[in-house]
Write a structure and sequence with these properties.
Radius of gyration: 19 Å
CATH architecture: 3-Layer(aba) Sandwich
Structural class: alpha/beta
CATH superfamily: Vaccinia Virus protein VP39
CATH topology: Rossmann fold
Number of strands: 9
Oligomer: single chain
Largest sheet: 7 strands, mixed
Helix content: 25-40%
Length: about 300
């Protein structure tokens, strides 16, 4: 598991004097203030860890890129690492690998595996101190809403992967609700929420909407062996299949925990909503996604690709 209390403390990295600040009752990071619209408080950490478990249940694996750790000096980089839970699990799984996690917020635990380091970085800025052509696997997960230029990010990832066998894995959720049987009304709060969230983040130049051009952008960056896996994720356990029920339970838990965090910043900062309006919409959405007669689902997209020689 992620931590077992036996690892040495990591030294602080680029902590600097960037105090976090409170807004609408939530805590936000002070480093490069305002460029990231989502909180960094304990509630958000819980949400991130819940989603990590959700991804484990839905996918059954930590990663699916063809990473082969059979030689010395293999290196793994996790962009937008959040609480660091994926990076910690990877460092535990591959103790001879060098693992690094980047995030704009220092919310990771102090007790970590000895082969793991965390660094405070904006992954859309220059990756200071990282050698080109040096990583075997670069991992991105749930970064929609944080990326202003996917082509530039993919180009940077490409440059830092080892030629021939370096792989990227990018996992995103398309949060726009889908319902094929009409059980969710057209005027549902869930549609209102998704439309406004995607509008707000688009205006902020960090769209949370899933980008259907992902495959083409990876190709344009120079990647080969590009593969996509799409996983249906019910918003609650309305499906009859036991595995899909389990996926729905975890996705529902993560959504209920994270709706406020996803909504507050974009809709108050960009759309100028007040807190009461946000609270009402979030409450209405929670009621809908917890109603099993609403046969609603989203989709997870898992992209893998390789840097050629």
């Amino acid at each position: 598991m992620a931590t077992n209390g036996t690892y040495p403390h990591q030294p602080p990295a680029m902590a600097g004097n960037f105090p976090d600040y409170e807004e609408n009752g939530r805590l936000y990071h002070g480093y490069r203030k305002g460029i990231y619209m989502f909180p960094c408080d304990e509630e958000e950490k819980d949400r991130m860890d819940i989603f990590h478990q959700f991804f484990q249940v839905a996918r059954g694996v930590l990663f699916s890129a063809p990473y082969i750790p059979n030689y010395d000096g293999h290196r793994i980089l996790d962009l937008g690492t959040g609480t660091g839970i994926w990076a910690i699990d990877m460092a535990d799984k591959f103790p001879s690998a060098e693992v690094m996690g980047f995030d704009i917020s220092l919310m990771q635990p102090q007790t970590i595996p000895p082969n793991l380091v965390f660094r405070r970085r904006d992954f859309e800025s220059t990756w200071v101190g990282l050698a080109m052509d040096s990583y075997d696997l670069i991992h991105l997960r749930m970064l929609a809403g944080s990326i202003s230029s996917p082509p530039e990010l993919y180009a940077n990832v490409f440059r830092h992967l080892k030629p021939t066998y370096g792989h990227v894995e990018h996992v995103e959720i398309d949060f726009y609700p889908k319902c094929h049987d009409g059980s969710l009304p057209n005027d549902a709060a869930l549609y209102e929420w998704a439309d406004n969230l995607m509008n707000a983040t688009e205006q902020a130049y960090k769209p949370i909407a899933y980008n259907p051009q992902t495959g083409q952008m990876l190709h344009s960056a120079g990647f080969v062996d590009i593969k996509e896996q799409i996983i249906k994720i019910p918003v609650n356990p309305w499906e009859s299949d036991p595995h899909k029920k389990d996926i729905g339970r975890w996705f529902n838990l993560g959504l209920c925990q994270g709706l406020e965090a996803l909504t507050l910043g974009p809709m108050t900062r960009i759309l100028n909503w007040d807190r009461n309006r946000v609270d009402k919409l979030v409450a209405d959405v929670k009621r809908e996604i917890c109603t099993k007669r609403h046969h609603v689902f989203c989709e997870m997209h898992v992209w893998t690709a390789r840097r050629p020689a």
